[in-house]
Design goal:
The protein is an alpha+beta fold. The protein has a single domain, classed as Aldehyde Oxidoreductase, domain 3, CATH 3.90.1170.40. The protein is 30% helix and 36% strand. The chain has 3 helices and 8 strands. Strands 1, 2, 3, 4, 5, 6, 7 and 8 form an 8-stranded mixed β-sheet that branches. A hairpin with a 2-residue loop joins strand 3 and strand 4. Helix 2 packs antiparallel against helix 3. The longest helix is centred in the middle third of the chain and has 18 residues. It starts with 10 loop residues before the first strand and ends in a 5-residue tail after the last strand.
């Protein structure tokens, strides 16, 4: 009897904790066909805009479209770069300054494939997946976040 594969989980309520990242990495130590891992961690930074300090970002996800697009990007890049596996996790809801909001982890037999794939995956997700952020300021006002490289 074959083991049924679970659908990937792409979104997490709140910040992505160091324990979540560590657990994901640890699961790969028994896989003998992996020669390289590449990880991207996106963190909420304390920007100052119009004399206002950002204290966090409240992320909103259009789930139906976002899950479909995230899965499509994941499979395309997995096949293109001949990856062993990929993991993508993005926060939704409030994430405070200094906390992790975006985690991409790819594994492959060779380092160049892992490095290229991770960069491409991050850029495609930022450009194509409907995830929107409201930057929350110290005085509790907000503005919609613009994605930049």
């Amino acid at each position: 009897m074959s083991e049924e594969k679970k659908e990937p989980i792409f979104f997490h309520q709140g910040a992505i904790t160091p324990e979540m990242i560590t657990k994901s990495i640890a699961k790969h130590s028994s896989k003998k066909n992996i020669g390289a891992h590449q990880i991207f961690l996106g963190q909420v930074r304390e920007d100052v805009k119009n004399n206002q300090t950002v204290t966090g970002i409240n992320y909103f996800v259009y789930h139906e479209m976002a899950i479909k697009k995230m899965a499509e990007i994941r499979i395309e890049i997995l096949l293109k770069h001949k990856l062993t596996c990929t993991h993508i996790l993005h926060s939704e809801g409030l994430v405070n300054v200094g906390e992790i909001c975006f985690f991409v982890f790819v594994s492959s037999p060779h380092r160049n494939a892992a490095m290229d794939a991770c960069k491409e995956m991050v850029n495609r997700i930022k450009a194509d997946v409907p995830i929107f952020g409201k930057e929350i300021f110290a005085d509790e006002t907000y503005q919609w976040k613009e994605n930049k490289n």
